[in-house]
Amino acid sequence: MALTPFFGGNGRNSILDPFDLAFWDPVDSWPSSFFGRNLGRDVQAVVSTRIDWVETPEAHVFKADLPGLQKEDVKVTLEGDRTLQISGERTREEEKKTDTWHRVERSHGKFLRRFRLPENANVEAVNAKVDKGVLTVTVPKTKKTEPEVRVVNIA
């Protein structure tokens, strides 16, 4: 028995290609609606928002890839005493009646990520900026205070 390549119309050439979604797209097989929304696309938007968290000696730094978004599309908030929340929305391109879409892979929809900050985070001095599609949130660390040591006289 021989395996023969499949020449489909989606630009890929093999049925054995593990990245080919022509036959089965796991996100498309999820329930089509969940409380009136497209659950698969919403989950994909949240999952595709990649965020790095690095701790330096001076601060906790969060970097999120948000290509195509402006700073007005993103919201950074602190909830409670130490929960950092990054949220926003990617809007879908306007479809024109004359256009023929062959593939829609870029995610759209709302995204939300939460991070519990450690006790050494100075939540009063959080700084955020967007540069070239990358959101950088810097949370400085509080200064470590050494406990005061007192000598107690023995009577």
From TrEMBL:
Q: Which InterPro entries match?
A: A-crystallin/Hsp20_dom, HSP20-like_chaperone, Small_HSP
UniProt xrefs under Gene3D superfamilies: 2.60.40.790
Q: Which UniProt keywords apply?
A: Stress response
User: Which residues belong to any copy of the SHSP domain?
Assistant: 42-155
Please give the Pfam families that the UniProt record associates with this protein. HSP20
Entries under CDD domains matching the protein: ACD_ScHsp26_like (cd06472)
Q: Which domain of life is it from?
A: Eukaryota
What family is this?
Answer: Belongs to the small heat shock protein (HSP20) family.
Its recorded name reads SHSP domain-containing protein
Question: What is the scientific name of the source organism?
Answer: Sphagnum troendelagicum
